């Protein structure tokens, strides 16, 4: 069978939050390339429009602040009016900056929790009926994006300064998302909706500090950092009906970083 026959999503509707982020773009591209009508969700309409113009496939740029009850409710209403179903929901929005315990503030933790936990609750509240509708003839999938830093702590010596590494509130909420995935999988399973988590390891992207990239690569048994395509294929597996008996799982894609 061809990859499209195995993991094709033609006729499906996918929603990706944090779509203009580094990994968000990769995941949105994979879903659109597999044939799904892919809703690109983020705060900046201009960036969303630009991303939609670059991607192959049917993409809908949809400005939505996932920390806003009104915005998320409006997104749900648009989805309901457009097709009345959601087959894939990817919760990827997060706080993307460095920091340490010394520089973190209580407000940082609240902001991170809002983007991780409260946003998940809003999104699920706005799309639960659309996911259940899709379950009548498909195997709808919610994919939560965590991080290896939800499983282990960053090694400060890898970074130029403590403030250059991932901040503690980032790792704390990513750890919580792994457990939230289990709760959601148990609750939504009887309705035919699957919920899984993907935990990326070092995916620093292009144009980074070569010395930092080398240090990160040394932390994996495979001796390298990840290629974005390696997240895309994992997402397609979890999004497609090929993983129809997989729910409540945390798929770690980290080159073995957390194995030693």
From TrEMBL:
Q: Is the keyword Signal assigned to this protein?
A: no
Keywords tagged on the record: NADP, Oxidoreductase
Q: What is this protein called?
A: Gluconate 5-dehydrogenase
What phylogenetic lineage does the species belong to?
A: Bacteria, Bacillati, Actinomycetota, Actinomycetes, Micromonosporales
Supply the InterPro entries for this chain.
Answer: NAD(P)-bd_dom_sf, SDR_fam, Sec_Metab_Biosynth_SDR
Protein family (similarity comment): Belongs to the short-chain dehydrogenases/reductases (SDR) family.
The reply on keyword NADP is yes
- State the superkingdom: Bacteria
